[in-house]
From TrEMBL:
Keywords (A to Z) from UniProt: Cell membrane, Membrane, Symport, Transmembrane, Transmembrane helix, Transport
Pfam family, any one: SDF
Protein's name according to its UniProt entry: Dicarboxylate/amino acid:cation symporter
Superkingdom field: Bacteria
Source organism (scientific name): Salicibibacter cibi
SUPFAM superfamilies for the chain: Proton glutamate symport protein (SSF118215)
Transmembrane segments: 36-61, 73-95, 146-163, 184-205, 211-235, 256-274, 294-315, 322-343, 349-372
Topological category with respect to the lipid bilayer: Multi-pass membrane protein
GO biological process, one term: dicarboxylic acid transport
Gene Ontology MF annotations: symporter activity
UniProt GO cellular component terms: plasma membrane
InterPro entries: Na-dicarboxylate_symporter, Na-dicarboxylate_symporter_CS, Na:dicarbo_symporter_sf
């Protein structure tokens, strides 16, 4: 009997943890498998996002519908991000990680190194906004600047809508390109179990229990918070707003979740998220093609939740009692910071420095979580991609009512 892709990836996931724990850094011999798989994914991201987003925009039929869709999506992301920060703060108060964790204060060298890394990546907010608009869209695609690719795709899609019938050949071209890229994605996914093993085993081997145990309470607080957010917020979204079974949703999105957890990259998970949400959950191509790429760059519930946990951890470690006003500031800043987080590994540390600065906490605290940031990044990235998919389910139902999810048998129980 042939195992399903979900089962194969789950087995690879478990084996990677076991082999990494047993053989330690010796598992770096399988790292090329993970690197090759990530290259295959990166190879299809730009053409897939470009073509699918153009198809998504042109299939909406009008700019008015696109604005309505975008408004619903951004509104949903803001609400869930705010809830995520609230849950993160609650986990920080519940677990008291700063008082429980058995760690020493970071050295000056460690602090300088982490702050330098964050400063290198941190751009002025005006520059971030300006960089969304590409000076040269071809260069933006060549450098895989996803926000620039999304902007170009939206502009091109709107242009096709405005031109109308005369642009039909261009529309047909991108329709065909999107279909081709989905076929290629399907082929690449056949080797996903090997990729997951090659990515995860070296990570487990490198960190090991010695690094994880002193800060285990931080990992636990984030993991429990993300689990609650996934089960109640996303589960509630697909059940109450999407009117489909949460079990169907979570089972269908398992491959994408496991890959996001392993790779710690929302952007790299775009192809698999789109494939899963369409084929397994039943969201239409026009909805998923718009929301999944869009969400991968602006929806970071896991990062928002992480900010809540990490800020309280650092405050507790340094013996700082945050006031109600400062807690409110954390909630607002972390929500907005999460919306602007790029879907790449490690960006959470940058957002953490922004939040710490807003409430006057020592930036040295960044070094406290740096050792386990890769582990934390895996947890929050898995949460992020489920948030994108739950948003797609909500928008699909709200836009198309009883006609939603017609591509699959309706399982609403």
């Amino acid at each position: 009997m042939r195992l399903s892709l979900v089962t194969q990836i789950l087995i690879a996931f478990i084996l990677a943890i076991l082999f990494g724990a047993i053989f330690g850094e010796g598992m770096f011999v399988v790292e090329p498998l993970g690197d090759l798989f990530l290259r295959l994914i990166q190879f299809i991201i730009v053409p897939l996002v470009l073509a699918s987003l153009i198809v998504g925009v042109t299939s909406l039929g009008s700019g008015k519908q696109m604005l309505r869709l975008g408004g619903k999506t951004v509104g949903y992301f803001l609400v869930t991000s705010f809830i995520a920060v609230t849950i993160g703060l609650a986990m920080g108060f519940l677990f008291n990680p700063g008082e429980v964790a058995d760690i020493d204060e970071p050295t000056e060298e460690e602090v300088d190194e982490e702050l330098e890394d964050a400063e290198e990546e941190d751009d002025d907010i005006i520059d971030v906004i300006l960089n969304i608009v590409p000076e040269n869209p071809i260069q933006g695609m060549a450098e895989a600047e996803i926000l620039q690719v999304i902007f170009f795709a939206l502009a091109l899609g709107i242009g096709i809508l405005l031109v109308g019938e005369r642009a039909a050949p261009v529309k047909n071209f991108f329709d065909a390109l999107a279909e081709i890229m989905f076929k290629i994605t399907g082929g690449i996914m056949k080797v996903a179990p090997l990729g997951v093993f090659g990515i995860l085993a070296p990570v487990v081997g490198e960190h090991g229990l010695a690094v994880l145990m002193p800060l285990f309470v931080v990992i636990l607080a984030l993991a429990v918070g993300c689990l609650l957010h996934i089960l109640f917020i996303y589960g509630g979204t697909v059940r109450l707003l999407g009117k489909i079974s949460p079990l169907r949703f979570f089972k269908g999105m398992t491959p994408a979740f496991l890959f996001a957890f392993s790779s710690a990259s929302s952007a790299a998970t775009i192809p698999l998220s789109m494939k899963n949400v369409q084929e397994n959950v039943g969201v239409s191509n026009k909805t998923s093609s718009f929301i999944i790429p869009f969400g991968s760059t602006i929806n970071m519930d896991g990062t928002a939740l992480y900010n809540g946990v990490a800020v309280l951890f650092i405050a507790q470690f340094y013996g700082v009692q945050l006031s109600f006003l400062e807690i409110g500031t954390v909630m607002i800043v972390a929500t907005l910071a999460a919306i602007g987080t790029a879907g790449v590994p490690g960006a959470g540390l940058i957002m953490l420095t922004i939040t710490l600065t807003a409430v006057g906490l020592p930036l040295e605290g960044v070094a406290l979580v740096a050792a386990i940031d890769r582990i934390l990044d895996m947890i929050r990235t898995g949460t992020n991609i489920l948030g994108d998919s739950a948003a797609a389910v909500y928008v699909e139902r709200s836009e198309y009512k009883d006609k939603a999810f017609q591509s699959k048998t309706n399982e609403t129980s």
